[in-house]
Design a protein that fits this description.
The chain has about 550 residues and is an alpha+beta fold. The chain has a domain of about 160 residues. Helices cover about 50% and strands about 10% of the residues. Strands 6-5-9-8-7 form a five-stranded antiparallel β-sheet, covered by helices on one side. A hairpin with an 8-residue loop joins strand 3 and strand 4.
């Protein structure tokens, strides 16, 4: 009887296991059919390989690689960053479509081009003024000098005559103006890369000096010409054309000196390091330290932003969110809070509370004490996973690039079967797509790299004979902020916050902050110390040595 019962139990188990396998097989087939019918929910970059033994080249099988349609968000499903009380949510993958301020308004255009227009107009007037001062007497612009009846024609010709010395001065004026134009074009004639909230003191001072110089020279020029006609009317000696040319030559020299002073104040003065600046990015604590010269606070802010966009790594908000492990979720779900005293009026409503000496408070203490331990293991596990998937990605890229070879020969038969860079990239990409996808998920980079951008990068690397490591460089190496597609905007808006006046120069202990959305750049200024070096002469006779030998030494 025992044997029959055992046999019946075994047969019933076998029937149940066979029914379970049939049910599993049916569910698997139904799942596969559903996946086959739904093309939109297909896993990204799935490929189908068809091997046809009847058709081949040189007796070999032909493998046709077909890339099936994939969703644009190939990295993973869209991750939305929301708040508990937020009414709207945005995806980090759609960061380029976030609402931005209008950068083409009238206020922006006026603030960007108003000061530049004034500076260009004043520079043009100052450059044309020497030429006008030389040409105006020749064309008879002053009627008192040309139409005066008291002046004889011989006197007029004598006054407007230009000797050899005068011609040499005119030639020197021409060369001075050409050199001045080249200097202005090379140093100052460029588009402004920042719109400052306050006035630039050195630039305004240079423009004021230039305006005063042009006004003063024109005033004395008109006074001298009018006084010359009066002197000729009373029969006195008047200033001639040679004296006017010498006057214009001194004007050109003054313009060159003003340009020299402007170069020193605006381009050279801040090159010598005077202060030490530390920049800390608020969300992730990334920091850099630099030496900086004598700049105003607003110009130092522009300098900081230039360093930020070219030297700081891309900020990835996903890296700050470590996923909760299963043990933490289990621990959080298993903790229950009870009111030990039972005197709480809210006990009848089904919301028990824990007293000071309850088990709930002890559980919370244990949970808080083990939080750092859980975080340590989560970070270690994440680093291990990243290293593992990085190794798989490098191996997959090496294997994929090994299947591509550039066609060097120009034979018609070989050229007919050759592929272009885009086609070759599409053929080899499925072999490394899965490893790349897993690595981007592990490093939280999938919002920054779309399928089309990766495929275009692979085609470009194949056309340039780049190595697999060169192809993987955008994914393995953290690029600067400016390398992100989300930062490719013509105008970047930042808010500058400082307790000091923005036009004031930097000083020891000054702090200011730059804000753009959730990113804060906290900048601290410290003055570099002054160094005192003294010379110390070492006697060459002191470079003599004596060995101290004992029984314990090995020498």
């Amino acid at each position: 009887m025992e044997t029959e019962s055992v046999r019946s139990e075994l047969s019933s188990r076998s029937r149940r296991s066979s029914r379970h396998r049939q049910h599993t097989h049916r569910s698997t087939r139904s799942t596969k059919s559903q996946r086959k019918d739904c093309g939109d929910t297909m896993a990204p970059f799935q490929t189908s390989v068809n091997i046809n033994p009847d058709i081949g080249r040189d007796g070999q099988e032909v493998i046709e690689v077909q890339i099936l349609p994939q969703d644009e968000n190939w990295g993973e499903t869209t991750t939305a960053v929301t708040g508990n009380t937020s009414e709207g949510s945005q995806s980090m993958e759609d960061i380029s479509n976030w609402p931005m301020d209008n950068d083409t308004g009238i206020g922006i255009i006026c603030s960007r081009y108003f000061g530049t227009t004034i500076a260009l107009g004043l520079a043009f007037v100052s450059f044309v003024s020497p030429l006008a001062m030389v040409v105006l007497p020749k064309i008879g612009f002053f009627p008192d000098l040309s139409d005066n009846i008291a002046i004889q024609p011989s006197q007029r010709i004598q006054l407007l005559a230009c000797t050899a010395e005068c011609k040499g001065i005119l030639l020197s004026i021409a060369f001075k103006l050409v050199l001045l134009a080249i200097g202005v074009w090379a140093v100052f004639l460029r588009q402004r890369n920042a719109i400052l909230p306050r006035i630039f003191v050195f630039r305004a001072m240079t423009l004021v000096i230039l305006a005063v110089c042009v006004f003063s020279y024109w005033l004395f020029y008109i006074v001298q010409v009018t006084e010359a006609t009066k002197a000729l009317a009373v029969g006195e000696d008047a200033i001639d054309y040679n004296a006017l040319v010498a006057y214009v030559s001194s004007f050109a020299d003054t313009l060159i000196f003003i340009h020299y002073v402007a170069v020193i104040l605006m381009e050279i003065r801040h090159l010598e390091p005077v202060y030490y600046i530390k920049i800390v990015r608020s969300p992730d604590g990334e920091s850099r330290s630099y030496s900086i010269g004598q700049l105003s606070i607003q110009r130092a802010a522009v300098w900081v932003l230039q360093k930020y966009y070219t030297e700081f790594p891309i900020y990835n908000p996903y890296l700050e969110k470590i996923p909760i492990s299963k043990s933490q979720r289990k621990a959080q779900s298993s903790i229950k809070f009870y009111d030990v005293d039972g005197s709480n009026t809210n006990a009848s409503s089904g919301q028990p509370r824990s007293g000071p000496g309850s088990c709930g408070s002890a559980g919370r203490r244990r949970d808080s004490s083990s939080a750092h331990n859980e975080r340590y293991y989560e970070e270690a596990e994440r680093e291990r996973r990243v290293r593992k998937r990085r190794a798989r990605l490098v191996a997959a890229a090496d294997d994929a690039f090994a299947h591509v070879r550039r066609l060097r020969s120009a034979a018609p038969a070989a050229a007919s079967s050759a592929l272009g860079p885009r086609e070759a990239a599409a053929a080899v990409f499925p072999s490394l797509a899965r490893a790349l996808q897993k690595y981007l998920r592990a490093t939280r980079q999938q919002p920054r790299h779309s399928a089309d951008s990766v495929l275009a990068h692979l085609a470009r690397c194949l056309s340039q004979d780049a190595s697999p490591r060169a192809f993987l460089e955008p994914f393995l190496v953290e690029g600067p902020v400016l390398a992100a597609e989300q930062e490719a905007r013509p105008v970047q808006r930042w808010s500058l916050i400082s307790d000091e006046l923005l036009a004031r120069p930097l000083a020891d202990g000054i702090e200011f902050q730059l804000r753009q959305g959730d990113i804060y750049l906290i900048c601290s200024i410290k003055q570099l110390p002054k160094f005192s070096l003294t010379e110390e002469v070492v006697d060459p006779k002191s470079n003599r040595f004596v060995l101290r030998l004992n029984s314990e030494t090995s020498v």
